[in-house]
Design goal:
about 230 residues, alpha/beta, 5 strands
Length: about 230
């Protein structure tokens, strides 16, 4: 029979393709040459669970964004200071003006002549959301640290609530940013790829360990089960 006329199984060979297919870095195996094991199934389930957990973690981190704090020297002192004030004074006063940025502060005077003194150290602060420093995404405000002192004064002193301001020459810039959607997916792909590679190596090493352990066990059982007369001929 001529060699060209001999019937050959084409399924045993790779699929016919163009020259470009010779550079394929992802060769495919035929289903009949793939062996599925229970160990591989367990590793697959473990990798799927870990991948879902890491994906959820990355999604939460991307959704919350990140916040960075930067200190800089204040180049100039502003002449306007925003003050938020909620105060209740148990007295008749039609025109009360106290420049007090304190909030949720309650003090009771034990006598009619009492003096409350607050010392504020104010730090100008700029809050920015996103990398674009537009007016819609930027809030100019102030932070402060406070120390207080209160005491009962005599009849010749002036009672009341007194606030002293000390504006620091330091500017605090708080910027909240969130990575782009493409960058987020690149991180997710890197994380999932790392899980797949680690899972593949873990499965390979576990199968190698099981195979060597089985061979060692077979050799040990063979020596133990061999009689003394089996070696004499």
């Amino acid at each position: 029979m001529d060699f060209h006329e001999k019937v050959m199984d084409e399924d045993a060979f790779g699929a016919k393709g163009s020259i470009v297919s010779a550079f394929d870095a992802f060769p495919k195996s035929k289903p009949q040459y793939v062996q599925r094991t229970s160990g591989g199934g367990k590793w697959t389930v473990a990798m799927a669970v870990i991948s879902v957990m890491l994906f959820w973690s990355e999604l939460g981190r991307w959704w919350r964004g990140s916040e960075s704090h930067t200190f800089a020297v204040e180049k100039g002192v502003g002449h306007d200071l925003q003050v938020n004030l909620d105060i209740v004074v148990k007295m008749r006063c039609e025109d009360l003006h106290v420049n007090n940025p304190l909030d949720r502060t309650v003090n009771l005077a034990s006598a009619n002549f009492h003096k409350f003194q607050y010392y504020l150290s104010i730090v100008p602060t700029v809050y920015t959301v996103g990398r674009s420093a537009s007016k819609a995404n930027t809030v100019y405000t102030n932070q402060f640290a406070v120390t207080e002192q209160s005491k009962e004064v005599g009849d010749h002193s002036v009672p009341g609530v007194f606030v002293k301001y000390d504006i620091e020459p330091i500017l605090l810039l708080v910027e909240e940013t969130r990575p782009g959607f493409v960058q987020f997916w690149l991180k997710v792909i890197n994380v999932l790829s790392g899980v797949l590679v680690a899972g593949h190596w873990g499965f390979t090493l576990s199968e190698w360990f099981k195979e060597n352990w089985a061979k060692k066990k077979e050799r040990t059982q063979g020596f133990i089960g061999t009689g003394k007369g089996d070696y004499d001929h």
